[in-house]
Amino acid sequence: MESQKIISKLPYSKPFLFVDEIVQINENGVEGTYTFDENLDFYKGHFKDNPITPGVILTEVMAQIGLVCLGIFLLDNSFNKTTSIALTSTEIEFLKPVFPKEKVTVISEKVYFRFGKLKCKVRMKNEKGEEVCTGIIAGMVISK
């Protein structure tokens, strides 16, 4: 499945779509990028006069690229409008701040995909190649 088709199947839209590009994807993992728009609403208050991307948003970027995009790829044609991938657990360590206008790269490695559960080891790097956060994310495939 090609990258643009995967992105089009994501159940998000702007301003909550945090995937710009899928650089590579296969049955073992995914790599993708996102650039933080300086006009995103949360920067107005987090923090005053020193905007920093909230950890919950960094977690969401890792989940959208590292879990949901990979899940759509793995499910291939069985992923449709009645299928969702719901986040079930995260264990993320935040190492460096991410600022407005920064481009980040998420690298996700599949730990396992069985019984409808996908678990991935994820890391996020900034444009300098520095790791800004790392951890484990898991989710369940849900059919309505």
Strand order in space, largest sheet = 1-2-4-5-6-3
In terms of DSSP E residues, the strand content is 35-45%
The poorly predicted ranges are: none
Query: What sequence of helices (H) and strands (E) makes up the elements?
Result: HEEHEEEE
Topology:
Elements: H1 3-9, E1 21-26, E2 29-35, H2 55-75, E3 83-94, E4 103-114, E5 117-125, E6 131-143
Antiparallel strand pairs: 1-2, 2-4, 3-6, 4-5, 5-6
Provide a quick synopsis of the model.
The model has no long low-confidence stretch (mean pLDDT 95).
Could you describe the 3D structure shown?
A six-stranded antiparallel sheet has the order 1-2-4-5-6-3, covered by helices on one side. Helices cover 19% and strands 41% of the residues. With 144 residues, the chain is α+β, with helices and mostly antiparallel strands. A hairpin with a 5-residue loop joins strand 5 (117-125) and strand 6 (131-143). The relative contact order is 0.22. The mean pLDDT is 95. The chain starts with a helix and ends with a strand. The chain is globular, with a radius of gyration of 15 Å.
Key attributes of the depicted protein:
alpha+beta; 6 strands; 2 helices; six-stranded antiparallel β-sheet; 144 residues
